[in-house]
């Protein structure tokens, strides 16, 4: 497999993470990580894939999320890789004043391992660069 193929596979992996989280597909999410993976961010530290899935299921408090994956730069060395990925995550929720939209500007710092020909996340660190919480403009379906 070429370096470009590995980088494409890593990009698809981080996109599948966004899709699994937004669709609340916890089985698909679990397949993206190694069993001993770590997911850390502001106020959370999930150790192991079971803790990651349990922790991420807390997103159920939002009526909808959309993670938009942007810049993704990866460095591949044989069967290991690291990357930084930019993401804007939208979270809709209900408040006394109506529907609100919490937006996060995220940078993920990731480490990956290629196991049996498939890339998996071994460590994901969520860095929150900015956030805003505004009334939703327009109808949410």
Automatic annotation (TrEMBL):
InterPro entries: NTF2-like_dom_sf, SnoaL-like. Signal peptide: none annotated. Residues 4-124 form the SnoaL-like domain. CDD domains: NTF2_like (cd00531). It holds the Pfam family SnoaL_4. This is SnoaL-like domain-containing protein. It comes from Metapseudomonas furukawaii. The lineage of its organism: Bacteria, Pseudomonadati, Pseudomonadota, Gammaproteobacteria, Pseudomonadales.
């Amino acid at each position: 497999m070429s370096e470009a193929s590995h980088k494409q596979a890593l990009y698809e992996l981080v996109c599948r993470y966004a899709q699994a989280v937004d669709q609340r597909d916890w089985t698909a999410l679990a397949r993206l990580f190694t069993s001993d993976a770590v997911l850390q961010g502001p106020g959370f530290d999930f150790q192991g894939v079971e803790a990651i899935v349990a922790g991420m299921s807390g997103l159920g408090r939002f009526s909808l999320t959309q993670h938009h994956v942007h810049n993704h730069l990866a460095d591949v060395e044989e069967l290991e890789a690291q990357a930084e990925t930019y993401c804007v995550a939208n979270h809709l929720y209900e408040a006394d004043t109506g529907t609100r939209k919490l937006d996060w500007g995220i940078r993920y710092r990731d480490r990956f391992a290629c196991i049996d020909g498939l890339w998996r996340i071994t460590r994901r660190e969520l860095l929150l660069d900015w956030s805003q919480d505004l009334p939703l403009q327009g109808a949410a379906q």
